[in-house]
Design brief:
mainly beta
Length: about 290
């Protein structure tokens, strides 16, 4: 593996003991879920900060034209903050536990408690969709180029794909896999296998590529880059990692910036924003 490299901090937000978890970007701000305080934070590029109470254990975050969305696991809800700061709630069934979030082709979530997907309908309700695998513990999900939704089935060691027609197929991953993060790239789907300490890519032709990391790296979130590779957080190793379009792996230490990297997002300028559960959100370039 490539030797670890230092990265340059461009901007950071100090968020105390709020436990930043997931991060999403729009043109003017970052949106970050704060797991310890039950809030969704808007962090302006001018350094401003606004917080919106959303309920217990906010998880994945996404952005649409009509605001920022957050899956709030223990509140059994999806919460949207509109551009004027209004807060809107879409209720999920009791105990369903919304966790992952995709804002591609509508608003989608994973329901870890009820083993389902959820889709926000045109009427503003949440439609629950059963998964074909029991006890799958659906984690993150991501929209595909063809309108499909890809889902990391953490406890089943598999990925699921829901097509635009509604059919759901399952692809088994190598034994011992427990995918969390998932992202759709130019030639396949990337997933972060937290149990197997590896990044996996399923190519469009069904070929599976494995990229092993060091033991205890515990990759969590993954996001594509512009060149055909991906970036990922290494929660256990306190690093940011990258796999380039040729399959080469590089690692970037986050020591000195914070600890416990979870979410990562890339903005249109190429800046990577990392949510560090120790209390910061940092912007870096390779």
């Amino acid at each position: 593996m490539a030797e670890s490299k230092l990265i340059v901090e461009e901007l950071s937000y100090e968020l105390g003991s709020s436990a930043p978890y997931s991060v999403a970007v729009d043109d003017d701000a970052l949106w970050v879920s704060l797991a310890a305080t039950g809030e969704l934070a808007r962090l302006g590029r001018d350094g401003s900060e606004e917080r919106y109470p959303v309920g217990d254990q906010p998880a994945a975050v996404g952005v649409t034209d009509d605001g920022a969305w957050c899956a709030v696991t223990k509140a059994d809800a999806l919460v949207r903050v509109d551009p004027r700061g209004g807060v809107h709630v879409v209720s999920a069934p009791p105990g369903s536990g919304p966790y992952g979030l995709s804002t591609s082709m509508g608003v989608w979530t994973t329901l870890i408690g009820s083993n389902q997907l959820g889709h926000v309908t045109a009427d503003g309700d949440l439609l629950a969709i059963d998964l074909p695998v029991e006890g799958a513990f659906p984690a993150m999900l991501a929209g595909g180029r063809d309108g499909s939704q890809w889902v990391a089935l953490n406890q089943s060691g598999a990925l699921a794909r829901r097509s635009v027609s509604g059919a759901i197929g399952v692809m088994e991953l190598p034994e011992g896999s427990a995918p969390v993060g998932v992202a759709v790239g130019v030639d396949g789907v990337w997933s972060a296998d937290i149990a197997g300490d590896r990044i996996l890519r399923v190519r469009d032709d069904g070929t599976l590529d494995e990229f092993p990391l060091e033991r205890g790296a515990k990759p969590h979130a993954v996001v594509i880059d512009r060149a055909g590779g991906c970036w990922f957080t290494e929660w256990g190793a306190n690093r940011l990692g990258r796999i380039d379009e040729n399959g080469r792996i590089a690692h970037y230490d986050l020591d000195g910036l914070g600890r416990e990297p979870h979410g990562v997002a890339r903005d249109r300028h190429g800046v990577l924003w990392v949510a560090l559960e120790s209390g910061r959100v940092v912007g870096v370039r390779p």
